[in-house]
Structures are given as structure tokens and as C-alpha cells.
UniProtKB/TrEMBL annotation:
<keyword id="KW-0648">Protein biosynthesis</keyword>
<dbReference type="InterPro" id="IPR036754">
    <property type="entry name" value="YbaK/aa-tRNA-synt-asso_dom_sf"/>
</dbReference>
<protein>
    <recommendedName>
        <fullName>Cys-tRNA(Pro)/Cys-tRNA(Cys) deacylase</fullName>
        <ecNumber>4.2.-.-</ecNumber>
    </recommendedName>
</protein>
<dbReference type="InterPro" id="IPR004369">
    <property type="entry name" value="Prolyl-tRNA_editing_YbaK/EbsC"/>
</dbReference>
<keyword id="KW-0456">Lyase</keyword>
<dbReference type="Pfam" id="PF04073">
    <property type="entry name" value="tRNA_edit"/>
</dbReference>
<feature type="domain" description="YbaK/aminoacyl-tRNA synthetase-associated">
    <location>
        <begin position="36"/>
        <end position="148"/>
    </location>
</feature>
<comment type="similarity">
    <text>Belongs to the prolyl-tRNA editing family. YbaK/EbsC subfamily.</text>
</comment>
<dbReference type="InterPro" id="IPR007214">
    <property type="entry name" value="YbaK/aa-tRNA-synth-assoc-dom"/>
</dbReference>
Amino acid sequence: MAKSKHNSETPATQWLRKQKIVFTEHNYDYVDRGGAAEAARQLGVALPLTAKTLVMEDELGKPLIVVMPGDKEVSTKNLARQLGLKKISPCQPEQAQRHSGYLVGGTSPFATRKTMPVYIEEGLLACELIYINGGRRGYLLGISPQVLVQGLNAKPVQVALDK
């Protein structure tokens, strides 16, 4: 395999290294609106293992992160019900960037600007390895999903809808 291009540090990779968490780095050519499907295609990995990091907010505007398999959508109605909230909706891109400190398309759940609760689709926890954004567009990390539970106190939820 060719040496990866431009593996620069991001807040996410700095945090992971400080925690002594093992991960692999995977660069791909970012395509606007290509999402997890494009990343999975370029990297030759299964789409369900390519996790999306989504910044959402509750009815009071409090942000939260949901980590989903790349081939699924979030049922915001089910998520709100499971969290005991009235309503959850995706943040506008500018708002998501303010909360996370990352550009949309490069959002990582690690080392976000604001500390936010993290929720992970339960099915991802059964995977040995997932590919999640490393804090820059076109840059995924291969990592155990258990890291999200242990390092970010991510709570499992069942909110996946087929696309």
C-alpha cells in the first residue's frame, strides 16, 4: 500500500495519541456531498463500517453527537424518545461547526470544541473495527468502536433507519 498523504495532526488524533489509543489512518479524496459512501468506495471498506459523526440538537438547542453506520439514517423521533426529549434535529452546518470545531464533512467525535454527549448506534459496537472521521475532510481513522464508549462515554441507542 502506498504511503498515506498528508497525515497531519488534528485535535482528534492528538487526543487519541495522548490517551494511547491505537488507530490507523486512511486518506481519500474528499468529494463534496460524497459522504460515507464515497469514503467507503475509495478505501475499499464496507459502507456499514464507515461511521458518520452527526451533530444534532435538542429542542433547547443543546448539541449532541450521534455516530451512525454509513448506510443508515437517524430516526430523530426514536432518538428523542430514547433520550426522553421532545425533539431532536440536525444542526445547520454553521452551527455544527461552532459546536464541534470541525468543518462539516470532517467532523470527528473526538476532541470537539464543546463537550457534547455522544450516542452510538448499537450495531456498531458489535464491529471489531470502524472507520470514523479523524477531524479533517478526506481522513478516516480505523478504530475499535469501544473507544467511543470508554473514552467518550458514548451511550448505545437503536435509531437506525434504512436509507
